[in-house]
Every structure is written in C-alpha cells, then in structure tokens.
Amino acid sequence: MRILLVEDNNTLANWLAKSLRQSQYTVDVVYDGTDAEHALAVTAYNLVILDLGLPDKGGLEVLRHLRRHGNEVPVIVLTANASLDGRVTGLDAGADDYLAKPFELSELEARIRAHLRRASQKTAPVITCGALSFDTNTRLFSVDGEPLALAPKEHAVLEQLLHKIGKTVNKTALSQSIYSFDSETDENAIEIYIHRLRKKLEGSKAEIVTLRGLGYLLRDGV
C-alpha cells in the first residue's frame, strides 16, 4: 500500500515516514502543496496524510484541487487547529478523517487501516483467500494459521493483490504500490516477486493467475 505524506515539518515527516515503512507501507514524502499536487497527478496512492499548514499552497487548497479533479483517494488531515470550525472546514473540503496534533502513532495507524479497508470494500480486519489470511491490524500474512515469511516487496505485491481479490491488477499498478520516489523502479521485477509468491503459496489454495497483456489476479483456487 502506497501512502503520500504531505508535511512541512521535516523532523515529524521523516519520523512518521520511517514508522510507517516499518509497518510495511510504501511512503512518499513531500514538504509543500505544489509537490503534493504534482505527486498526486502522476502517481496512484492508496491514502494521503495531509498537513493543512503548508508553506506555499495550503492543505485545504491541495485537498479541494484533488477533489475537483475527481480523485477519491482517502485523505487523513493533520493539523494543529483542533477547533470545531477547523474540523468542519476540513471535512467539508473533502477530507475523510481529521487528526489534531499532537497525536499518537497508534491512533493514526488504526485510522489508516480503517480507511484502507473501507476503500477496498473490506470491513472485516482479516482478509482471506483459501488458506491465506491477512490481518490488517497486525499487517501479517499467514497460511493455515502459520506465519508466512515475506520480503518487504513480496509483502507489498501480495497485499495489493489481496485487497483487489478477484480483480485484475496490472504490472504498472503493482509497481507503483511497491516503489517510492527514492527507489529504482523496475516493472520487470514484478515477475520475480510473483514467481516467489507462487512458490510460497503452494498448497494454500490461494492462486495468482497471469492474464497475458492485462496483469495478475489473486483467486481462491478451490
């Protein structure tokens, strides 16, 4: 899952990005509204964390621009303005959630998980396919109750497929979900990760199907 973090406080942004990456999220960080709008124009994100107090274009302007262009990505607003009017303004501008600074990381991560589940139309915290399970709270995969050991990019690819279970995901979308701005992108590497995942999922009845020219699809292979 790829997240855009828009926060002009470098210390907070870098700490938050590091924490989210440790939770197996792919995170891009930008520090002003102009870069945020550019990133959102060229990249498909699963969620945006948006500070309102940005140095050039304010967060509300970025949010309104995003919604005017039909982008429905979930947006969690961060702000030092915890007033009722401030919350109402943010929500009316198109925010999905609102978190006042200072905040607890555990609460932010819980809200991220909830919005990602809602966006993928999965309300239960555990998503299953055959004997494969993914606990969205712990962000751990298991097969028949046993932990499934995955490298970070294997985890990212499988999570993307599981959230789109039964639907085709093209190679570009998978690539965007696992590579951040500062990573060297290689769409051909997706084939390697798919091959490794198939071997690790053998016997689980969770099947990754290749649809030539279209992409990949995860399904219950019962």
UniProtKB/TrEMBL annotation:
Keywords: DNA-binding, Phosphoprotein, Transcription, Transcription regulation, Two-component regulatory system
CDD domains given in the database record: REC_OmpR_PmrA-like, trans_reg_C
UniProt entry tagged with the keyword Phosphoprotein: yes
OmpR/PhoB-type domain span: 124-220
GO process terms (BP): regulation of DNA-templated transcription
Keyword Disulfide bond part of the UniProt annotation: no
Pfam families the UniProt entry points to: Response_reg, Trans_reg_C
Modified residue annotations for 4-aspartylphosphate: 51
DNA-binding region: 124-220
Response regulatory domain: residues covered: 2-116
Cellular component terms per the entry's GO annotation: cytosol; protein-DNA complex
Gene Ontology molecular function: any one: phosphorelay response regulator activity
Lineage: superkingdom: Bacteria
Name this protein carries in UniProt: Two-component system response regulator TctD
Species of provenance: Phyllobacterium myrsinacearum
